[in-house]
Structure formats: C-alpha cells, structure tokens
Design brief:
alpha/beta; 3-stranded antiparallel β-sheet; 37% helix; elongated
C-alpha cells in the first residue's frame, strides 16, 4: 500500500515514482482490489494487457481512467498528479502558463488539463449551511475607469453592472461557503439559492440592506447592516456584519486578478469552485486535499465543451 503522507512536491514525486505506481494507486483507491466495470457493475471482468480490462456483459474494454477526468488522456498520470497538487495546494492557484512550465507541456494542454481538474472542484460547493450565515454578492470584471472612452460601460443604477459578472455567496461562520455565478442580483436569482442551501431552522441570515434580500424574514431570522449609511457593523449587536464573507471575496479577487488576470463568464463558475475547494478545506493537510480530489474525480470534460 502506498504511503500518501507526503508533505511537499518532492515527496509527491518520490511517492509516485513511475506511471505504473500511479495506476496501481488509482486502482486501489477506486476499486479496493475488486475491479468493477463502469458499463455494468454486475458483469464478470477479464484482465487484459496494458492495465486494461474487459466487461463480459458488454464486451467493452476499460481501464482505471475510464469515466474519470483522466479518460483518454495522453498525459502521464505523474504529470496529472503534480498538476492536481499545484492546483489544490497553491494558495491562489496557478496560471496555465506557469503550470505548462512546471509539468513540461504546452500552455494549451495545461489550460485544458487544469479545466478538467476544476470540473471536480464543484464537490465543495453544495453544502447546507446553518447557524449564523452571511450572504453577500460581489462583481467580477475590469474597472470602468480603466477603459477607453469608447469602451466604457453605461451604468443604469442598482447593483447590476453591464460590464461585470455577479456572484452570490453564502458563508457559515467558522464553517463552509457556497458561491454561484448569477445573471443579476434580483430576488428571482437570490432567493432560490438561499432557500436551497441555507437551512431555515435555527439559522440567522445576515445580509446588507439590498432589496434582493427582502422577504427572507418570513423564513429566517434576518438581520441586516445598512451599507448605504456607512454602517458596516451593527451598533447595537456587534455580531451583525458581513465582514467575514467580504474577506472571502477579497481572496477570490486576488486569485482571479493576480493569477489569472481575466476570466470569462463561461468559465467563471469553475474558478469560483476552485477557490471554494481550497477555502472549505483550508484546515486539512495538503495531501488530504490531494487524495480527496482523486476520490471524487469521476467527472469527464471534453475539449469542445470548453471552447464552444
């Protein structure tokens, strides 16, 4: 059995010293010594050459990569494992340009590989929250003042900016966080997500005064701070504020603007999920974050779905 108590990149490389070691590790993690067909779990399995297996009932061949983010990859698992480590354990993530240099592939390959990994990060964006839960929105996009005059976006008022992408977040204090890209910050977008991911019983929902949160007092103990009046902490109850989630937004934006420079609306949710994966698992060791993602890697992404 492989010892996965590695604490650095060097120890990771030493642990997974060959492609066969990586394959054996994945097989043990996925099947626990009893190979199961991804096409028919009840079928008898025949072992073939080159780490392949054949499903008797369907006649199809498969290997440990089938049905996972590694399916049909031409990149070695050693490079995949290193990329996963860098994405899950880096404080702010890693750009495709830097990743390409670190694992020895082209930038285009590194970009595709990192997006296949990001598809798996969504496992940390579906928590049911309770207790004291802060809810707030942020907006991702360039600053209007930095644009040329003919490219400046026209602001129509409220919290909907034509040049920015809104993201709604929900943070359980001293707990997990969920965040989702939305079309706008109206009630029709905000309320369904709050009802889905925040438990109504024994929950105090803390927001600012934005109209998109109106009506939630019917379901939650709703408390709010009035930012329009320069109130950032309630004067009578110091626990009523949204400072914690606003601190999370700062971390997210530092990652997007500092590492990735710019992110399109199409892919923004994946980058949000990447941030949440690291944030929600911030208190566990790096090697545990690495192995946890490998266990949840049954998500396959095709290149066409990323570029169309």
């Amino acid at each position: 059995m492989i010892n996965t108590n590695f604490k650095s990149v060097l120890e990771l490389i030493q642990t997974f010293s060959s492609e066969q070691v990586c394959i054996d590790y994945l097989e043990q993690m996925r099947w626990g010594g009893v190979v199961e067909s991804p096409f028919d779990p009840e079928s008898k399995i025949y072992k073939c050459s080159n780490n392949r297996y054949r499903c008797k009932n369907t006649g199809k061949y498969f290997n440990v990569k089938t049905g996972t983010m590694f399916e049909n990859t031409k990149i070695s698992l050693q490079k995949w494992f290193l990329a996963i480590w860098l994405l899950t354990c880096g404080k702010k993530g890693i750009s495709s340009v830097q990743l390409a240099k670190d694992i020895g592939v082209t930038q285009k390959t590194a970009w595709f590989l990192s997006h296949r990994i990001r598809e798996c990060f969504g496992i940390e964006n579906n928590h049911v929250l309770e207790g004291d839960v802060e809810c707030d929105e942020t907006f991702i996009g360039g600053k209007n003042k930095n644009r040329h005059a003919d490219k400046k976006a026209k602001y129509s008022g409220g919290r909907n900016f034509p040049d920015k992408i809104p993201v709604i977040g929900m943070l359980q204090r001293k707990g997990k966080m969920n965040a989702f890209v939305i079309d706008n910050t109206g009630k029709k977008n905000i309320h369904p997500l709050i009802h889905r991911y925040i438990a109504a019983k024994n929950t105090r929902l803390i927001t600012d005064e934005w109209s998109g949160y109106k009506g939630l007092h019917t379901f939650y103990r709703h408390a709010a701070v009035d930012h329009s009046r320069k109130e950032y902490v309630n004067t009578t109850d110091k626990t009523i504020h949204t400072n914690s989630i606003e601190g999370c937004w700062k971390i997210l934006k530092n990652s997007i603007y500092g590492i990735y420079n710019a992110v399109s609306r199409k892919h923004l949710q994946k980058y949000v999920n990447e941030f949440l994966y690291r944030f929600n698992l911030r208190s566990i060791p790096d090697n545990t974050r690495f192995t946890y993602l490998l266990r949840k890697s049954k998500v396959r992404t095709k290149y066409k779905s990323l570029i169309l």
